[in-house]
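Input record, target 12 of the design panel.
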């Protein structure tokens, strides 16, 4: 089962007396799709290369035509506009020596314990070996990681997918090391999967099974709500999953050039009027995919440059602070949300932990504030 998540980029601007910088639900009338939300059906190894530099450059370049400040010449009264920006640079590097997609082609061998008495999906799901291994593994998470869910019969599908490796044993340390060695990876999902020994086709509709042990990497936390892939039917063969554990680490994003060390906030920043009675909230951008604070840094810097280019009477609105965090929809992480401000706000203003809209809950996690090291006064020097 494949479950693709949809969300539009949001640009929200507050009025003279700012309401909480909540999500602009009325602006969500378009969708950006990240099509790769989990491993390909026949994949045993899959690497998605996320080009951070290219993504940040693309985000910055887009400000000229789709600014986070929609009306540069009227800072106090602005409307909400929506925008779609897709900044993932993903390259599937999987290569095969044989065409595993050919009818009845042998599939790469699995290393997990096989369920063959009987060889059915129901027997696989009832096999206590898989649940026992997963339960014990959850007792001893790898150093620096916590268990987010354990012993599920489904794997994670989300927009923050970074890659897959098939292991020779249910080794959480090996999966952790793969995550630690992958840029932007903050979580992994390890599980047993019942797969066919041959690619099912008319001449071999229900081949014998073997068991793969899969490790998938994610550029956000993983949640039980994101574990929605229960398998699929391939002709008459049923792929199912067991012993699925999720692990995640709480790690601060890297310090961005020109900005101070990021400060962890309890939730998203919800800033009042400043001491001068001015609204400091500039706007926001949303990027589906792995959590990448460099996108927010690029947008903040580009917003200042663009506003300066369109200064009125030598005055412009600078971006001196941004708040980056992972936006989750229905408790499933979906991407990076960036809120921009003309002055810094400390973590005590990180009070927006999420909001409900219809039947879905829009949540905030890994929220960090970044202040420009040398604050921009917003005045064109003569």
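The sequence produced for target 12 reads:
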């Amino acid at each position: 089962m494949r479950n693709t998540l949809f969300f539009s980029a949001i640009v929200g601007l507050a009025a003279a007396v700012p309401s909480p910088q909540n999500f602009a639900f009325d602006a969500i009338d378009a969708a950006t799709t990240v099509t790769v939300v989990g491993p390909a059906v026949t994949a045993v190894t899959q690497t998605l290369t996320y080009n951070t530099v290219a993504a940040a450059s693309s985000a910055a370049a887009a400000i000229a035509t789709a600014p986070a400040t929609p009306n540069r010449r009227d800072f106090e009264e602005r409307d909400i506009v929506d925008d779609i920006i897709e900044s993932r640079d993903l390259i599937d590097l999987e290569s095969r020596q044989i065409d595993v997609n050919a009818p009845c082609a042998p599939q790469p061998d699995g290393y997990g314990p096989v369920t063959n008495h009987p060889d059915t999906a129901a027997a696989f799901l009832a096999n206590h070996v898989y649940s026992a291994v997963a339960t014990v593994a959850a007792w001893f998470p790898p150093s620096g990681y916590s268990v987010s869910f354990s012993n599920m019969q489904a794997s994670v599908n989300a927009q923050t997918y970074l890659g897959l490796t098939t292991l020779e044993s249910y080794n959480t340390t090996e999966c952790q090391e793969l995550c630690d060695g992958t840029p932007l990876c903050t979580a992994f999902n390890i599980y047993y999967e019942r797969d066919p020994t041959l690619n099912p086709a008319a001449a071999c509709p229900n081949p014998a099974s073997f068991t793969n042990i899969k490790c998938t990497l994610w550029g956000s936390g993983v949640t039980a709500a994101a574990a929605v892939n229960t398998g699929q039917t391939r002709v008459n063969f049923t792929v199912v999953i067991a012993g699925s554990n999720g692990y995640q680490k709480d790690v601060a994003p890297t310090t961005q050039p020109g900005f101070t060390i990021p400060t962890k906030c309890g939730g998203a920043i919800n800033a009042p009027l400043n001491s001068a009675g001015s609204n400091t909230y500039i706007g926001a951008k949303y990027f589906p995919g792995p959590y990448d604070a460099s996108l927010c840094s690029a947008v903040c810097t580009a917003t200042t440059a663009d506003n300066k280019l369109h200064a009125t009477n030598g005055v412009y609105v600078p971006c001196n602070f941004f708040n980056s965090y992972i936006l989750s929809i229905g408790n499933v992480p979906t991407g990076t949300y960036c809120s921009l401000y003309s002055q810094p706000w400390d973590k005590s203003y990180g009070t927006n932990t999420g909001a409900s809209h219809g039947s879905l809950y829009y949540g905030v996690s890994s929220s960090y504030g970044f202040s420009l090291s040398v604050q921009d006064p917003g005045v064109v020097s003569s």
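The longest helix spans residues 293-309.
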